């Protein structure tokens, strides 16, 4: 049985709700590309989540999923470092969602802020479904299925990660107390060998009697290093350390990326629905056209009026994409009316175009080779499934669903 270290395992997901834009690239994909070298990463195209809001418009879904896979690959998410897969190709997501639904209080779902917010914001969509109410639980299942301890997300997702933690805690509380837990834990300690067992006992005592957090950390590290121990025994000893039961589903943590939010053409957050996005597949002339049309400092009516970058939506894009030298040139030129707005936009247009060219070239290669993309996704789903099955067999066992 493989041993999972939740703190080294990353899971994240993205809804295939349309073409990706610079905000996805800058805020999400670049971060994933970095993480894939230092963590065991699972990246999931969450097509079932797309259905929770778009069940009445399924025709574009499969193409969006394929486009998303191509754009991830083009951005440098690498199938040799990370596992890329489609959520619905791993049916264990749906199964864990169902099993967790048994213990998930309705009130927890109803008070997740996105539930009411989305209902108010997304007009013309029926969000009065069971599926939509269960959105955060499906997301919790995505994460808990892989025992992922680290979930890179934007700050808008914090409530969902907190919810996943609550569900995990409740599950562990209800089912981690297997019959004979203490005896089983004591037996597992004996299997550590005499020296390690003494060390474990001392550290456990230091934590439980004196609240020594460093001792808890050391004991956890000690357990992590135990190569020959079964996953079950390991979970018992993790749980026993803190005085609880078995940790069947580890509680995940959000990992917020430090890159600032990408703002769109109008200065508000870039998103498809705000109609202010530069898409990764926009041509060079699309980019030029979009940036040229961007509004600027409203106080700068005439070319001879000095402007203020802080009041101009072009400025945050410069800060994101331009060199320090160009940024200085913009600030000085704008405030002294030394440059015009089109002049100011020219280097930005150039840099964004340059940023997109290699991405689009790689995307074209993958698009010309759809079988390769399908194969990458199938292999990803296989890898994901074998991890998912291990968790589910423990979950089934805990719930008494083990028939032989
Ligand atoms: N709800 C997330 C979003 O809208 C997408 C998502 C689904 C996700 N499952 C996930 C993110 C699991 C992280 C982990 O962005
Ligand atoms: Fe904006 Fe540049 Fe025009 Fe200043 S010069 S208002 S920063 S576009």
The coarse overall form would be elongated
Strand composition percent: 5-15%
Structural class: mainly alpha
Bound compounds: tryptophan, iron/sulfur cluster
Going across the biggest sheet, name each strand in turn.
1-2-3
- Work out the helicity level: 55-70%
Termini, distance in Å? Answer: 20 Å
N-to-C series of helices and strands: EHEHHEHHHHHEHHHHHEHHHHH
CATH H-level homologous superfamily name of the largest domain: HUPs
Using the coordinates shown, work out and report the CATH topology of the largest domain: Rossmann fold
> How many structural domains in the coordinates?
3
The appropriate CATH architecture of the largest domain is 3-Layer(aba) Sandwich
Report the C-alpha radius of gyration, rounded: 25 Å
Overall number of strands: 5
The largest β sheet comes out as: 3 strands, parallel
Number of helices: 18
Mean of all residue-level pLDDT scores: 94
CATH class of the largest domain: Alpha Beta
Regions with little confidence, pLDDT below 50 for 5+ residues: none
In a nutshell, what does this entry contain?
Pfam families: tRNA-synt_1b. The chain has 404 residues and is mainly alpha-helical.
Which characteristics define this entry?
two-stranded parallel sheet; 3 domains; 18 helices; binds tryptophan; Tyrosyl-Transfer RNA Synthetase; elongated; Rossmann fold; single chain; 404 residues; 3-stranded parallel beta sheet; binds iron/sulfur cluster; mainly alpha
Describe the structure.
The radius of gyration is 25 Å and the shape is elongated. The longest helix has 29 residues. With 404 residues, the chain is mainly alpha-helical. It has three domains: 200 residues, HUPs (Rossmann fold, 3-Layer(aba) Sandwich), CATH 3.40.50; 61 residues, no CATH class; 83 residues, Tyrosyl-Transfer RNA Synthetase (Orthogonal Bundle), CATH 1.10.240. Helix 10 crosses helix 13. Helices cover 56% and strands 6% of the residues. It contains 18 helices and five strands. The protein has a three-stranded parallel β-sheet. Iron/sulfur cluster binds next to helix 15, helix 16 and helix 17. The site of iron/sulfur cluster (SF4) has 14 residues, from helix 15, helix 16 and helix 17. It is an enzyme of class 6 (ligase). InterPro entries: aa-tRNA-synth_Ic, Rossmann-like_a/b/a_fold, Trp-tRNA-ligase, Trp-tRNA_synthetase.
């Amino acid at each position: 049985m493989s041993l999972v270290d939740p703190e080294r395992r990353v899971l994240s997901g993205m809804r295939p709700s349309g073409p990706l834009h610079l905000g996805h690239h800058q805020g999400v994909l670049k971060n994933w590309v970095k993480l894939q070298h230092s963590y065991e990463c699972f990246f999931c195209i969450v097509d079932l989540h797309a259905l929770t809001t778009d069940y009445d418009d399924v025709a574009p879904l499969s193409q969006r999923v394929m486009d998303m896979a191509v754009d991830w690959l083009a951005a440098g998410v690498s199938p040799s470092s990370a596992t890329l897969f489609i959520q619905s190709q791993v049916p264990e997501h749906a199964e864990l969602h169902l099993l967790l639904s048994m213990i998930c209080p309705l009130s927890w779902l109803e008070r997740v802020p996105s539930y009411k917010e989305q209902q108010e914001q997304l007009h013309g969509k029926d969000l009065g479904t069971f599926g939509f109410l269960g959105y955060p639980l499906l997301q919790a299942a995505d994460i808990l299925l892989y025992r992922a301890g680290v979930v890179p997300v934007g700050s808008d997702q914090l409530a969902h990660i907190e919810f996943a933690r609550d569900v995990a805690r409740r599950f562990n509380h209800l089912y981690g107390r297997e019959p004979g837990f203490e005896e089983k834990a004591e037996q597992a300690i004996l299997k550590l060998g005499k020296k390690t067992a003494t060390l474990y006992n001392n550290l456990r005592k230091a934590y439980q009697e004196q609240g020594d957090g460093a001792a808890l950390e050391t004991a956890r590290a000690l357990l992590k290093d135990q190569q020959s121990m079964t996953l079950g025994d390991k979970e018992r000893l993790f749980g026993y350390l803190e005085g609880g039961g078995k940790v069947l589903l580890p509680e995940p943590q959000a990992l917020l990326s430090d890159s600032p939010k990408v703002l769109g053409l109008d200065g508000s957050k870039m998103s498809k629905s705000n109609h202010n996005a530069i898409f990764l597949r926009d041509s060079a002339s699309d980019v030029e056209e979009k940036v040229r049309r961007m509004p600027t400092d409203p106080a700068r009516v005439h070319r001879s009026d000095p402007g203020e970058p802080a009041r101009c939506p072009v400025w945050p894009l410069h800060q994101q994409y331009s060199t320090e030298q160009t940024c200085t040139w913009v600030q000085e030129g704008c405030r002294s009316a030394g440059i015009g707005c089109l002049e100011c936009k020219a280097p930005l247009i150039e840099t964004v175009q340059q940023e997109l060219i290699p991405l689009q070239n790689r995307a074209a290669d993958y698009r010309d080779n759809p079988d390769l993309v399908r194969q990458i996704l199938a292999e990803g789903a296989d890898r994901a499934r074998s991890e998912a099955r291990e968790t589910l067999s423990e979950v089934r066992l805990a719930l008494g669903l083990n028939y032989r």
